[in-house]
Amino acid sequence: MGRIWTPGGPQFVSRKHKYFDQILAPGISVAPPRRGDRDSSLSPALQLASPPPEGLPGVFPTPGDLSSTLSHLQLCPSVLEFEPRRDSPIARNRSQPLLEVSCTTMETRGMDSTGREFTNAEEMWREQIGEEDGHKKRQWYSNGVGYWEGVEASIDGVLGGYGHVNGADIKGSEGFLKTLLSDRLGPDFATHQRLVALDCGSGIGRVSKNLLLRYFNEVDLVEPVTHFIEAARESLPDDSVLDNHKAVNFYCQPLQEFTPEAGRYDVIWVQWCIGQLVDDDFVSFFKRAKVGLKPNGLFILKENIAKAGFVLDKEDHSITRSDLYFKELFNQCGLHLYKSKDQKGLPNELFAVKMYALTTNIPKRAHAAKTRSQTFKPAIIT
């Protein structure tokens, strides 16, 4: 919905980040925050992140076969995100396909906003959405939309009281987008191509207005909260404006039910909204949305990142996933990581934010490195 993940307002986020965005490992416990804690008054238990147990960063398994890895992805949809040792399989070969990173030897731990711990994501999802008639899943989505229906349709509202981060967010996104468009479409992409983007979870059109409409001739918006999409419709230029950059379609629909028009988009932008989707709907959405991309199109996903496992927010019914959790879901979607970049300039009390560029085909290296024999081949003097 084009907003930062700040359920409960700035005070809640400040406490939540310091508490939950720590490495969760067996034998390590962190005292839960008090309701009134702020950064300046956090207890020592909240200020100090405990290091992982000896040897834990090296528990990544030796890459296994594809079928074995796939069979475990449904049971273990995320992995603790530890920096691997230089001698670990991941550190030795970072070019390995993501599917070769298995989670069979570790459990994914996570927490909810009340401080309750979960052994793994499967346990959490079973409790939240059930396994039978779909009633609990429908309630999950209804509660999520209901939360945002009570939020003011303004930049400060959709950013959870952090409206002042809008500038830094747009600046980081623009730098990433310009590089991607130049890589995929050529350095003169803006001069001879008519570009179209889809803004998913668009909220009030914050990203469309401040970024996408400056680079794309047409932008479509999809958003489930009625007063957000109406605010976007009122504030963005449309067909009645004599301008080569305009908002065209406004879809008031949740992502788990949305299917884009086939072959329409150069970029499908998804920011600060995918945490509302449960894992199976996350995968289903991207599989459906692939058909909306042009042959050289790509997805750009920008989201908060948990350092380990996941953090469930019970107030707005969303989940913050770790980097490895996301990468496993990308694999299930059949997507390939083209580039990624960390967002800079956001307040320290917030979760880290990462941008991912994803393609439907295996990315080609723009500048393949020369082989050793080519590099050191003696020149012929004539």
UniProtKB/TrEMBL annotation:
It is an enzyme of class 2 (transferase). Gene3D superfamilies: Vaccinia Virus protein VP39. The keyword S-adenosyl-L-methionine applies. GO terms for biological process: methylation. GO terms for cellular component: cytoplasm. Keywords: Methyltransferase, S-adenosyl-L-methionine, Transferase. It catalyses: N-terminal L-alanyl-L-prolyl-L-lysyl-[protein] + 3 S-adenosyl-L-methionine = N-terminal N,N,N-trimethyl-L-alanyl-L-prolyl-L-lysyl-[protein] + 3 S-adenosyl-L-homocysteine + 3 H(+); N-terminal L-seryl-L-prolyl-L-lysyl-[protein] + 3 S-adenosyl-L-methionine = N-terminal N,N,N-trimethyl-L-seryl-L-prolyl-L-lysyl-[protein] + 3 S-adenosyl-L-homocysteine + 3 H(+); N-terminal L-prolyl-L-prolyl-L-lysyl-[protein] + 2 S-adenosyl-L-methionine = N-terminal N,N-dimethyl-L-prolyl-L-prolyl-L-lysyl-[protein] + 2 S-adenosyl-L-homocysteine + 2 H(+). GO terms for molecular function: N-terminal protein N-methyltransferase activity. Residues 28-63 are annotated as: Disordered. Its EC number is 2.1.1.244. It holds the Pfam family Methyltransf_PK. Belongs to the methyltransferase superfamily. NTM1 family. Alpha-N-methyltransferase that methylates the N-terminus of target proteins containing the N-terminal motif [Ala/Pro/Ser]-Pro-Lys when the initiator Met is cleaved. Specifically catalyzes mono-, di- or tri-methylation of exposed alpha-amino group of Ala or Ser residue in the [Ala/Ser]-Pro-Lys motif and mono- or di-methylation of Pro in the Pro-Pro-Lys motif. This is Alpha N-terminal protein methyltransferase 1.
